Amino acid sequence: MHMKLNYRKLGSGRPLVVLHGVFGSSDNLFTVCRNIAGKGYEVFILDARNHGQSERSDIFSYEAMAADLGQFLTEHEISAPVILGHSMGGKTVLQFSQQYTNFSGLIVVDIAARSYAPHHDHIIRGLKAIDTQTLTSRKEAEEIFSRYVTDAGERQFLLKNLYRTDEGGFDWRINIPVLAEHTGEVVSAIPLHKQVEQPLLLMRGSESGYVRDEDFEYLKTYYPAARMETIEGANHWIHATRPAQFEESVIRFLNEVPAV
Fold first, then answer.
1. I need a surface site. Which of 134, 185, 212, 231 has the fewest CB within 10 A?
2. Domain of 148?
3. Are 255 and 228 spatial neighbours (Cβ–Cβ below 8 Å)?
4. Could you give the CA distance from residue 171 to residue 234 in angstroms, rounded to a whole number?
C-alpha cells in the first residue's frame, strides 16, 4: 500500500534523507538538520508511517518502512542520497540498503542489526493510561505518565506526540494501538545477506550501550567500507545530548562520500 509520508525540506545541495526513531517524528532532528542544511545540503526529514503527520497503517515492519522510503525517493526524484537513521530509523536504513540501491552513503545512529530485548512496555502502558477523551491538560498527562516513565527527558520526548485538536481536546501523533501490537517488530533483527559497497558510518554514544564492538565487526562483514565513531558523553539520543559533535560527524562523513 502506498503511504503518504509527511516530510520537511531544508536547504539545497546534495541530498540527505533523515529518519527518526520509534515514538519520534521529524521534529526530533529538526535543529541539527537545519544546521547541516546550512552547510550546503538539501535535507529531507521524514515522519515514519504511524508517526508524526504521516499516514497510518495496521502494517508496521522494517520491510514496509524501507518500501515507504523507496517510494518517497522515487516520488521526489531524489537520486543517490546519503540516508541517515536514528535507532528504529537506523534499522530501516539497513533494511533499505539490503533491498535497494538508490543511495551513495549510509549513517546509522546508535543501533545495531541484531535484535534487542523488548524494552518499550512501560512506555506503552503509560501512553495507554492517558485517556485523550477525558484529558484536561498537558500537566495532567505529565502526572499520569510520570508513574510509568521516570526519566524526565524521556517523558518530555514522548509527550511531544500529544497535541491539542482544533476542537480543544487532545490527541496523539503516534498510532499507539499499532505500535503497541508491534513493539516486538521494532526490536527485531535486520537480516543481512547482501554485500554493500557504499560507505557507512555507524555512530554510537559512549554512554548508550546499544552498539557493542562486536556489532560493528559483524556489520563490517557486509559493509566493508563501514567505520564507527563513538561520541563521548552522548547517550542513545546523540543528536540531543551532543548536537555539535553529531553535526560535525555527519558533515565530515558527507564530505567524504563521493558524489554520484
1. 134
2. 121-183
3. no
4. 32
Q: How many domains does the chain have?
A: 2
The pLDDT tens digits of the residues spanning 9-36 come to 999 999 999 999 999 999 999 999 999 9
Contact 87, 183 (CB under 8 A): no
Distance CA 226, CA 107 (A): 9
Output 120 or 40, whichever has higher pLDDT: 40
Q: What is the CATH number of the domain that holds 235?
A: 3.40.50.1820
Least confident of 41-45, 52-56, 116-120, 184-188: 116-120
For 76, 111, 200, 205, the CA distances from 212, given in Å and listed in that order, are 36, 9, 16, 11
Give residue for cell 524526565: 152
Rounded CA gap, 190 and 63, in Å?
A: 9
- 2 in a structural domain: no
pTM of the model: 0.95
H/E run at residue 9:
strand 7-10
CB atoms within 10 A of CB 92: 29
Q: What integer pLDDT is reported at residue 1 of this predicted model?
A: 62
Render 42-108 in DSSP notation, one character per residue. Answer: EEEEEPPTTSTTS---S---HHHHHHHHHHHHHHTT--S-EEEEETHHHHHHHHHHHH----SEEEE
> In this structure, is residue 1 part of a structural domain?
no
At which of 148, 183, 218 does a domain end?
A: 183
For residues 188 and 191, give the distance between their C-alpha atoms in angstroms, rounded to a whole number: 9
